[in-house]
Design goal:
144 residues, alpha+beta, Alpha-Beta Plaits, 4-stranded antiparallel beta sheet
Length: 144
Amino acid sequence: MRRYELMLVFRPDAPDERTQAVVERVTRMIVGDGGQIVKVQPWGRRRLAYPIDRHREGQYHIVVFEAPPTTIGEIERSLLITEEVLRHLVIRIERPVRSARKGETAEAGEGDQVVPPLVDEDEVEPDGERIDESESEAAPAAVD
C-alpha cells in the first residue's frame, strides 16, 4: 500500500457537524477498501490565496492514510460532488529509504530498492570536486 496525504478545504460557513461527517465518510471509504488512517488533523480556518466561489477563507483538514491506488479515484469522485468541499488535493508521499548505519553494510534483499545518493551531476566536476557556487559567474563574489 502507498501513503497519501489528502487536504480538504471546506466552505467557511459549513457547520462543523457537516465537515466532520465528510471527514468520517472519507475515512470509512479508506478503511473499507483495506487502507488505514495514519493521522487526521484539523488545521482550522485560514485565509485562501485567492477567492473560491466568493469565499476568502476556508476550513482546512489534513488526512494522512495508506491505501491501494484504486481507492484514490473513488475518494475524489465523492469529494467532487460534495457541496461543502471547496477544494481537495491528494498527493502521494514518498517514504525515505533507510540507509545503513556507520559500520554496517546495506545489502539489497529481494524486493528492496537500492537508491544511489542524490548528487546533482552539474555540481560535481569530472575530478570529483564540488563546485563552489558562491564564486561562480551566476553569483559573483562580493567586492569590497
